[in-house]
Amino acid sequence: MQQKMTLKRLAAVLGVHSSTVGRVMDPQTRHMVSEEVAERILREAALHGYRPNKIAAALRTRRSNIVGVMLPDITNPVFPPILLGIEDALRKQGYVAIVANAGEDRAQQRFVVDQLLARQVDALILATATRDDAILDYCLASGVTTVTVNRGEDTRRVSSVVNDEVEGMRLAVDHLAQLGHRHIVHLAGSQDLSTGHLRREGFMTAMAAHGLQEEALCIVDCSSYSREAGRLACETVLARYPGATAILAANDLLALGCYDSLRAHGLRCPQDMSVVGHNDMPFADLVDPPLTTIRIRHHEMGVQAAQLILRRLQDDPVGEMEIRLKPELVLRGSSAAPRAGAAGLRAAAAA
Amino acid sequence: MQQKMTLKRLAAVLGVHSSTVGRVMDPQTRHMVSEEVAERILREAALHGYRPNKIAAALRTRRSNIVGVMLPDITNPVFPPILLGIEDALRKQGYVAIVANAGEDRAQQRFVVDQLLARQVDALILATATRDDAILDYCLASGVTTVTVNRGEDTRRVSSVVNDEVEGMRLAVDHLAQLGHRHIVHLAGSQDLSTGHLRREGFMTAMAAHGLQEEALCIVDCSSYSREAGRLACETVLARYPGATAILAANDLLALGCYDSLRAHGLRCPQDMSVVGHNDMPFADLVDPPLTTIRIRHHEMGVQAAQLILRRLQDDPVGEMEIRLKPELVLRGSSAAPRAGAAGLRAAAAA
C-alpha cells in the first residue's frame, strides 16, 4: 500500500501552497484557481489516490448537498421543464439534484427512495405523489425533508407546489361553452392523482356553472396519462357519446391520442370534433392541428419546490404550505365552434 | 447530545433481532423485510437520529454505486430515451444515475463535473462531449471512469456509444435522390460535435455517390440543435438557394424549425419543399406533416453506455471501444418527389 497522501504532502510534491490545493479539492472554491493549475493538481491527486472527499465532510456535517428528485415518467415532456426549474434554483446555492425516474409502480418507487436515502440526500422532491401516498409515509418515517411537485396529497401533510387545476378546467370549459359546445366529454386522468381528481372536479363545477351538468356530463376514465390511453378513450367517446362535439382531455398526451383515433375514423379536428389538452407541453404548437390547451407553469413549479426545500435546509422555520400557480388558456387550432349537424351525422351513422 | 445510537441498541428498543434492523438499514436487502416492520424500524431509527449510513460504507469501499450522467439539454426530446436506457441497465445492478443538465457552456460543465466528483460518483457518462473536449481532460485527470454517449471525441481515448452518422446520412440522401431531388441543402449542426461533423461528412460522401457534389453541394451551418436555429437556417436556404427542393436537417429540432419558416413564407411541405430530420425523436410522427427522419436507437445507446461502465466497475478488463449503432430511415409525410417547376417559381419570385 502506498503511503497515505495528505493535502500538505500533495502541496509539497507540486510545489504549490497548500491553500491552493485546498481550494482545488473543494468544488465550491475550485473556480478560484486557474484551470491549468487545477488540472495539474487534480492529476497529481489522482496519481496518489488523493481525491476531493466530500463524503468525509458529509459524514461530519450530515449534509450531502444533494436533493433527490423522483419522477413518474421522464418521457412525458412536462417533466423536463420542472426539472430545469428545480436545477436552476438548487444550483444557485451549490446543491445538485439526483434525478431518478421511478415510474408509477409503488414497489419500484420504494426501491428508488431507498437508494436515494442511502446516498444521504438532504431532501426529496416527489413528482410521483398519489392522493394517499404510502411512499410519503415511508419518507416521513425516515425523517427526510420532503416536498411534492405537480401533484399533491389530499392530507396536505407536506408542502406541495401545484397548478390550480380547478381554475384550469374553468378556463377550458368557458372557452368551449363560448364557442357553442354543449356536449363536452372529459377524458379524466387517474383518480388516485390530485391532477386527475381535481381536473375532473373542476370539469364538473365548470359545466354546472354553464348549466350543462344535466344535459351532457360525459366523462371517460383513462388508465394513464399516455398517448395510447387517449387513443383508447377517444374510441370510447365515439362509441358511447355520438352527440359529443368536443373533448377536454386531462393532459396533452391524452389529447394527442385523440388525434390518432379521430384520424383513424376519418374525422377532422376541429371541424368534426374539438380537442382541448392540458399542460401546454413542448411541441403542442407543432402538432396537426396545433393544440388548444391550458398552459401550466412547469419551470416555475420546479423553482418554487426547490426554494421550499432550500429554506428548510437552511433551518428557515417555514411551515407546511400549498403553492398553487395560475394556469392560462392557449388558443390554437384544435378548437372551433361545433359544425351544425356534424355530431348529428355521426349519431345517425352510429344508430 | 443524545447517546450515540447503534444497530444493536435500536434492535433492543424495538424488540426485534438485530439482523432484521441490519436488513432494513441496507437498501439492498430492505425488501426482505415486510413493509410494516421496515417502516416501524425506520421511524424509530429516525427518532434516534440513526440513519442507514451508506456514506460510511462508501468511505471504506470507495464505492458509491452512483453513476453521474451529464446532459447538454434535457429539453431536447432525444435525451430522455437515452437516460431511460442508462437507468434500466444501472438499476439491474443496484446502481443509480445522478442526472445533471449542464448545458453546452464549458464553465458550467466544469462546475457540474466538480459537483459530481465531489459526490464520489463511481463513473461518468457524458452526453456533452465535443470533438476535442477539455472537460474530458479534466475527468481523466481526476481518474474517474468515463464513457461518452451519443457524441464521441475525435481521439477516441475513451469509449463511446454512438450512432453510425455516415450511414444515417447515406440513407437520407439515397431516399431524396430516389425521389428525384438534385438540389438538396444540408442544415449542419455544430462542427465541434461529432454528430454535426460526421453528419456533414456523411452528407458530402452520399451526395458524391449520387454524382451530385458538383451541381448542388449546399450547406447551411446552424448555431445550435434547436427549433429556432432551424427556423433561421431555413430563412437562409430560401434566400441563398432558390433552386433547392429538399432540406436534410442534422436533427429533428432543426427540421421542425424549417416547418416554422416554410409556414411563414406560405410554402407547403412536402409540395414546395421536402424536409428530412435526424433522430426520430418522440412526437416526430404527430407534427404537420409527419416528419420523415432517421431513427437513432437512443434507448439502446443508453443501455450500452451503462453496460460499459458497469463492466469497468466490476474490474472486467474491457478495453476502450467505439460502439456504433445502425440507424434506419422512417418514411413519413414530409418528403415527396419535387413538384415540377416549384423551385423554378420560387427562383423566379426571388429574382
Give an overview of the whole structure.
The structure is a homodimer of 351-residue chains. The model of chain A has no long low-confidence stretch (mean pLDDT 87). With 351 residues, chain A is an alpha/beta fold. In chain A, strand 3, helix 7 (134-142) and strand 4 form a beta-alpha-beta unit. In chain A, helix 1 crosses helix 2 and helix 5 runs parallel beside helix 13. In chain A, strands 2-1-3-4-5-11 form a 6-stranded parallel β-sheet, sandwiched between helices. In chain A, strands 7-6-8-9 form a 4-stranded parallel β-sheet, with helices on both faces. A two-stranded antiparallel sheet of chain A has the order 10-12. Chain A starts with 6 loop residues before the first helix and ends with a helix. The radius of gyration of chain A is 26 Å and the shape is elongated. Chain A is built from 14 helices and 12 strands. The interface between A and B is large, with 62 and 61 residues.
Strand segment tally of chain A: 12
Number of helices of chain A: 14
Order of helices and strands of chain A: HHHHEHEHEHEEHEHHEHEHEEHEEH
Main sheet: strands, sense, barrel of chain A: 6 strands, parallel
Biggest interface, chains and residues, is: A-B, 62 and 61 residues
Radius of gyration of chain A: 26 Å
Low-confidence segments of chain A: none
Distance between the termini of chain A: 85 Å
The protein's oligomeric status is: homodimer
Helix/strand/pairing category of chain A? alpha/beta
Principal-axes geometry of chain A comes out as elongated
- Overall pLDDT score of chain A: 87
Strand line-up across the major sheet of chain A: 2-1-3-4-5-11
Helix content of chain A: 40-55%
Please report which band the strand proportion of chain A falls in: under 5%, 5-15%, 15-25%, 25-35%, 35-45% or over 45%: 5-15%
